[in-house]
Input
Amino acid sequence: MNKEILYNDHPLTLLLFHGSPCLWIHYPEQESIPKMEFVGGYPNEWCIDVCNLTDEEKSQIKDEDGNTVDISKEFNERDIEEVKESIKKYSNIYIVLEGVFNKNIYPLELQKAFDEELKKRNITEQEIEEIKNRKK
Output
């Protein structure tokens, strides 16, 4: 789903971020590219939402061979819906897990709320372990 592209001669990665096609930075100095926005908690989480680009700016998105990339052909509706569903399922759980595992706290009230959320979202123990391992 990710694709290496050039945008105004800058190497970036075309990907889906929260269900929207975005151009993701490779290097911190790319933060100054026009329309680049900070989107995360880590220093390198910057991207350009392709929806915010004009048609002329979109025509500057090129593949490695210099051909214009047609964004609408890169991601089909199924890809976008899968990303959106994944976000709905995991985003709140991930935030809770991140706080719990980074601070090594697990108060009883949080445990109960967490267990209820897991049941509502049908998240398995294996999926929880995968999230834990991402943070190590």
About this structure: The chain has two domains: 3-74, 81-134. The mean pLDDT is 77.
